[in-house]
Amino acid sequence: MDTGKIAGQPDTAEAGLRWGRRAILQATAAALLLPQASRATPVPSPDPDAPQAPAVRISNGLVSAILFMPDAAKGYYRGTRFDWSGAVADLQAAGHSYFGRWFPAYDPKKHDAIPGPVQDYVTGQGFDAAPVGGSFVKIGVGVLKKPAEPIRGFPTLEIIDGGKWTTRVRRDAVEFIHEVNDPVSGYGYRYRKTVSLPPGRTQLVLSHRLESTGRNPIDTEMYDHNFFVLDGQPSGPDVEVRFPWEAEAFNIRGDTIAVSGKRLNYKGPIERAVRMQLKGFGPTAADYDVRVENRRTGAGVRVTADKPLSDFVFWTSPRTTCPEAYIHVHADRGKPMEWCITYDFYSLPAAERVGATPA
What's the pTM? Predict the structure, then answer.
């Protein structure tokens, strides 16, 4: 689903490491200070390329995270591909870091200049029926103008109406509410996403509620583009991805990922993006279960959800690992849909790490 590295862009290492060091210092301070606070703390943007982007820090004492806030004028992300809410600039848990800047050049309107975990609601509601220059709705973004040219890749389109964003910030959670109404296309919605850190757990939970407020039902596929950057390390042989089902790859682009049974492994360092679709999962939510581990640093994360998979894509670039789990989203007027995605963070035992000394 991604275009990979763009020619002429600088190497990711310097920008990513610079941001990573700054974010780690801020998150460490958060872990010490926030348990006594009653509300989340507004913080400077951890990315020096976007110093005015609004951000807040939340913590439950075990997990500390910096979130970018939606803002049409100064927001870190102002593209039209991803939902504007819930982008995590940095997250520290179990002695490891999990998200951060992975892309080389920053532009607030570039389609993938955003850290994870972010969501793309694939289908533009009303897009097919709209004439050129007409309107359609993209969940998490607003009312967009249909371009004259066929859409290829992920261009940033004109936003006719960005809707109304409301945020409710607590010490350990941020609730985002987005309300959009487009009478011309007949689509509208009220979307609520809460990013929370449950007390006493090394977890991040994304809770969603989507209701149609227009005359037409909402129907789309949604995938979570995780953009993991475990401990700030590049993609490569130290990273392993696992599922509870036997994976079979197809529509493969690139040859540096080995698929074997229930595992994906890197054959070596990668220099350009790799993409593939995977099948083998079943019809129940039990198969929405993905683990990503850096077996040298010991960082591990497990991603589960309460809805079944509808598709699965794996995408990776030199600095990020991205299992993209899809679910089918449907909401009729008066019948909202709710779902949750849970991230469990952990540290691998020393004996399971690369280079461990045999007992």
Answer: 0.88
